[in-house]
Structures are given as structure tokens and as C-alpha cells.
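User:
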Amino acid sequence: MTEAGASHPQYRPDVTKARPVSLPVRSDRVREVLSYLANHGPARIVHLRDALDISHGSINALAQYLKRKGLIRKIDDSREAPFELTTEGLNTQRAMIQRSGAERA
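Assistant: Predicted structure:
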């Protein structure tokens, strides 16, 4: 059952709740990168690499993956432009944090 169904006047408490919609990404590294950008604002690859202690090749590949997924984007067209979260990236980051907190509870 969805949240809308739970608040519907014909709600039946014996119905099991529906699982949340799958996120486009799942890894801890993705959550770290998205959280870093959410908390610190736009950042270049070298800053992400140093702050998160991820090798340059790995963070570069991860950034390209997140860019293809539409979760981050460069703030302009220059080669050195920092990455920022998209609206979908911010929503995904919040959902990842919320779900990881719910799993621990």
C-alpha cells in the first residue's frame, strides 16, 4: 500500500505496505558523493577525490556515471567546472539518507 492509500478513507489496516520505489543508485560511495555536494556545494573532481579519499580514476568514473544518471552536472561548459547536484540528485540523496536511517532503526 502506498502512503496515499494509507490515508484514504477506505484504508484497510490488514493490507501490507508497498515497498518504496527503487532508487536509481544504491552504493555507499554514491551516497557519500551526493551528500558531500549537498553539504558543501559544487566541487571539482580533485576536491571530491581528496575529501572522500577515493582514487582519481574511481571518482572520475563515478562522476561520469552520476552525470549520465542525471544526478549531477557541471555548472558550466568549461573543462575545470565543478559539479553540482541536480534536483533529482538532491532528492535521491535525501531518499538514500532517509532509507539508511530507517534500516538502522
